[in-house]
Amino acid sequence: MRSLIRTHATEFSLLVVIVVISTVLSFATANFFSLGNAFDLLNISAVNIIFAVGLLVVLIAGGIDISFAVAASVVQYCAAILLGWIGGGGWISGLLIAGSLGVLLGCVNAFLIHRFRIISIVATISTFNIYFGLLMFFTRGVSIYDLPDWLTDRVILFEHEMPDGTWIEITLPVLVMAVCVVATWLLITRTTIGRQLYAFGDNPEGARRFGINIGAMQFIAFGWLGLMAGIGGLIQAHYAQEVVPNALYGRELDVLAAVVLGGARLGGGKGSVLGCVLGVLMISITQNGLNLMGVSPFAFKMIVGAIILIAITLSNTRIERLLALVGEKGAGR
Amino acid sequence: MHQATSATVGEKPLLSLRDINMTFGGVKALKNVSFEVRPGEVHCLAGENGCGKSTLIKVITGVYRPADGAVIEYDGETYSHMSPVTAQDRGIQVIWQDLALFPEMSVAENIAFHEVLGRRPRLVDYNRMRRIAIDALARLGVTLDVDLPLKEYAIAQRQIVAIARALIGEAKLVFMDEPTASLTQSETDHLLDIVRNLSDSGVAVVFVSHRLAEVLEISSRITVLRDGALVGVYPAAGMTQSRITELMTGKTFDQHVRARPKDDQPVVLEVRGLTRPGQFEDISLTVHRGETVGITGLLGAGRTELALALFGMLKPASGSISIEGKKVRFASNRDAIKAGVAYLSEDRLSLGLIQPQTIADNLVIASLRKILSGGLLSEDRKRSLVSRWIADLGVRIGRQADAISTLSGGNQQRVAIAKWLATDPKLLILDCPTVGVDVGARAGIFDIVAKLAESGLAIILISDEVPEVYFNADRVLHMTQGRIVGTYDPRLARLEDIEAAVYA
């Protein structure tokens, strides 16, 4: 148990912070502590979690990506147009198209980084501007509201009325999110490719000496994030029931903060899917709670920023040490 | 003494290289080198930094391809060059100095890393990896928690992990690049035991090192390289450290005690009862003008912490520091530099020098004020300041604008010293100035230290190698657990006695 706490200190401290915030919120507001609200939170967070697990893979491989959110916007737009051409399509063709476009855009980043040795933050800031510039230029900022029915209709996979009158709903975005989370977890913890990604992020020179294919690592990491960005983009269009070119602009930093909060290290080699999901949820819970408490939305960013700072400071040092101490005492030393 | 020569002279060599030539951009890195290792032998490959040791290993492991005409015979086959895959498949392993490990990954994954290699993606079998790792560690007689991330372990254990990894698969020939550089005495002893066992089980081990004292006793032969050429192959029996040093450098060194009394000189540094609980206690010492005071003691004795306090980077809880009779209190190391204290840090690679920056920029970084002209940095002044120090300290460089990382350890250390001398210090603290510096270059550094002392600089020389302070300081202080427990005058005390006290 103690070594579990030690190796998963970030996840534990996030869990502690989430429990504390939830407890406070459940006293402060009437509606927070209900299953209905919990499922709402999952629905709201689905897109960000999909983005986050994609970004996690890039961070583990020692890179960073600023462009994925606008890439997702590009995917939304192109997918909407392509689906129009093929006469509407459906969820399967939609996910295939969005996923492939996303992978393509991710591979552009990998190509720039690997072929021209541009460091990832510079490469993706460039593609961020290029993608967004192209998108705004060709769309002239015009949104698409005329989406196929299958894409805009809510898909409720499971619903149940609780005794207190609230509804539990599991929607399609949550299912897709769960699939993405499990797939990413399998990739990075259960496959040899995933472990090579960790090794590459942890010690690139060491990985090179073992004959790990460095180029392949970049394409897999950025390709995977591209896939998640594409899927996340389509799901976001479904959730919002429209395609707005700048809807996801700025989302990259929210997601990045959540992933780093979840224990991923800028610099590579470290990070877990669980931490990443908890990181996104913590931010969502805070926003949701502030909402229910009737705090002005203008104050959100400020408060969320402060919470990120507090949580990251705690998980970096204090709680890890504190838990180690408690663990030692618990073990009867 | 251990029977090192288990391989007899007539036995067929495991590895035999002939006519190895290697050129990098017009510079001959290896000139007609030949090299031979017998099965199960412990062999030393000795030479100064830049003599071609690493290049030779990279030829053997297939990283570099030697010029045409090279002959590599290994275990019954002849090659004109190796490839990394062939070398690994045929049981040649290298434990690099920087270990090439993955600190965030578990011990098990680090040891059984080959399990996750290969082009074809598969599922990871963690149980198998754990078993492999536990077995490999058991072979070395070590138990570690294989599930913990490697970063939880100290450098000595990481070294063991690297060895365990190298022994997986049928290793026949293991190269160890500077394996004892960062180990304490008992850790080194343990490592040597492991090497003995390997040798007994038929694995040939080649030590690549310039710190040879500890490996001499278990080696059978020594191959010495100098300036890319073979100097010779010698039996280890009867070899001494000083003889090897001569072979490596081509020069003879006579070490003599340099100590001379300086008590009549004015006092530069006076420390009274300096205490920082848990790190150093009740330290009192005096350093005169032109005097070199040596501080020795094991790693963790509080030497570096004391130095940092004198340099204003750690705040003492009580006690006083006076410089030239004036009591000082440093709020930061900027104050200390202003008061005339310079500190050459222990970790030159990461703290002392900014590796990617140029030689010139590194040299002036602590004295930028001096090269101002009209409030802006002047390139001319910088150039002349740098030229002066480069000449003064005999640094061998290409151009001032080359990155510092292109210099050898000894030359880097000279630049680091020059950087501090450029601040016109009264007191220079040298914290382990010869770590990572070749034997030949070490003598050069101590010549500089002697010259500086002669010019009136007060010097504190910290080293965990007792002979260094014995031969080069005027007075030797011995620190243990944060306290000064002994003061020796090298002209009166015997080196063996001090060593016995320190390593006890």
TrEMBL record, chain A:
CDD domains linked to this entry: TM_PBP1_transp_AraH_like
List the GO cellular component terms. plasma membrane
- Membrane topology for this entry? Multi-pass membrane protein
Q: Where in the cell is it found?
A: Cell membrane
Question: What are the alphabetically sorted keywords of the record?
Answer: Cell inner membrane, Cell membrane, Membrane, Transmembrane, Transmembrane helix, Transport
Single annotated GO MF: transmembrane transporter activity
* The keyword Membrane is assigned to this record: yes
| Membrane-spanning residues | 12-35, 41-61, 68-86, 92-112, 119-138, 170-189, 210-235, 255-283, 295-314
Determine if Transmembrane helix is one of this entry's keywords: yes
Task: Give the protein name, as stated in the record.
Answer: ABC transporter permease
Write down the species. Answer: Rhizobium fredii (Sinorhizobium fredii)
